[in-house]
Design brief:
91 residues, mainly alpha, Methane Monooxygenase Hydroxylase, Chain G, domain 1
Length: 91
């Protein structure tokens, strides 16, 4: 993973931690359900954004390397991994 990506990922993870703590606090305080759901949605959106960042970095590093220098089987493996990730297929 590129150092820039690590830094961005760490920043997003810190924000996500705060959002999850907020959800917990809202639940503990028996806050209005819609407010809790909105916080859950915000955390889910932040996780999705983090996922996109990591996948883009993976394509720019690992996949690009395999496509440029890897064997046919290595290239096929990287493409299959991406398809599995993007379609939600479990390993």
């Amino acid at each position: 993973m590129k150092s820039k990506t690590k830094k961005l990922a760490d920043q997003r993870l810190a924000r996500i931690e705060g959002q999850v703590r907020a959800v917990r606090r809202l639940v503990e305080e028996d806050q209005y359900c819609v407010n809790v759901v909105r916080q859950v949605q915000a955390a889910r959106s932040a996780l999705s954004s983090l996922e996109t960042l990591i996948i883009e970095d993976h394509v720019d590093t690992c996949v690009e390397k395999a496509l440029a220098k890897g064997s046919v089987s290595e290239r096929r493996e990287k493409v299959t991994e991406l398809v599995d990730i993007l379609t939600g297929k479990k390993k």
